[in-house]
Amino acid sequence: MLEAVQNETESGLPSRRAVLCGALALSLGLATDLASASVPASGISQSGGKLKIDLAKNKALAKVGGVVTIDLSDGRTIAVIRTSKAVNGYNSIDLSCTHNGVTVMQQGSNWICPAHGSEFTLPGKVVRGPARTALTKIPLTATAKTVTLG
């Protein structure tokens, strides 16, 4: 079951947590490519164990290569990535490194594990170990207005 932790305030602005995490990533040099850096998702609703993302509230997903992240109530983080301009051109992955479970971070157009240096492509394929398997895909369906996970 997917249960999101809201990353925005009532006004629709990013939460203090999201802003502080972004500032920390920048100060540590973890977000070196601002144009491709992931942002927390907005406009998330839940129904029957599924998460629905309103695309109008997630401008990062308007272009190919855009990424939004969702913090789940179980401590995991997932990412939704725009992979093509097609209506169903999205991919979703669990950002837990398949080597040791540490949450990977976006650096440029790849995901890097801060614990042991495993590297993955934006869609989750292993580029460099010690991880041997791709990041776990999350099933999704998409329409012109929403992406539904789960």
CATH architecture: 3-layer Sandwich
Rg over CA atoms: 14 Å
- What is the count of DSSP helices, taking H or I runs of 4+ residues? 1
Calculate the terminal CA-CA distance, rounded to whole Å.
7 Å
Q: Which CATH class is shown?
A: Mainly Beta
Give the overall shape. Answer: globular
CATH topology label: Rieske Iron-sulfur Protein
Could you give me the name of the CATH homologous superfamily?
Answer: Rieske [2Fe-2S] iron-sulphur domain
- Give the fraction of residues assigned to helices: under 10%
List the helices and strands and how they pair.
Elements lengths: L3 E2 L10 H12 L11 E2 L3 E4 L2 E5 L12 E6 L4 E6 L7 E5 L10 E3 L2 E3 L6 E3 L4 E3 L11 E3 L3 E4 L1
Parallel strand pairs: 2-5
Antiparallel strand pairs: 1-5, 3-4, 4-13, 5-6, 6-7, 8-9, 9-10, 10-11, 12-13
Can you walk me through this structure?
- The chain is mainly beta and 150 residues long.
- It is 8% helix and 33% strand.
- It has a single domain, classed as Rieske [2Fe-2S] iron-sulphur domain (Rieske Iron-sulfur Protein, 3-layer Sandwich), CATH 2.102.10.
List keywords for this structure.
single chain; 150 residues; mainly beta; Rieske Iron-sulfur Protein; five-stranded mixed β-sheet; four-stranded antiparallel β-sheet; 13 strands; 8% helix; globular
Task: Please provide a brief summary of the model.
The chain has one helix at residues 16-27; strands at residues 4-5, 39-40, 44-47, 50-54, 67-72, 77-82, 90-94, 105-107, 110-112, 119-121, 126-128, 140-142, 146-149. It has 150 residues and is mainly beta. The protein has a single domain, classed as Rieske [2Fe-2S] iron-sulphur domain (Rieske Iron-sulfur Protein, 3-layer Sandwich), CATH 2.102.10.10.
